[in-house]
Amino acid sequence: MENFIVSARKYRPSTFLSVVGQSALTSTLKSAIVSGKLAHSYLFCGPRGVGKTTCARIFAKTINCLNPTADHEACNECESCKAFNEQRSFNIHELDAASSFQCIFEDFGGTTFICYFHIGNHRKT
Prior knowledge:
Radius of gyration: 15 Å
Number of helices: 6
């Protein structure tokens, strides 16, 4: 049981290109990365199963990547990407308000709110 991984996490897309059905969102997020115009926060909201967490995780990983690829995806080779992949990154924090703060948001019907904090900009520009 130690190596058990929920299938939604095991097969979760890891790049913007591999996300299906969210082309408007992924192109908007990639445009923000390309232009270097990042907002101070992003709120991903919507019904269950539409890719909120997936897109937020890919976005957070990409903006913290030290060596983004030519198509503006995370490299998966730098220390920031490795830390993210091994779930030991101090720059990225996932907050699932539906389960962490259930009493506050119970009127929202279990909608998941995910917040990622971009702490500093250690990427060389």
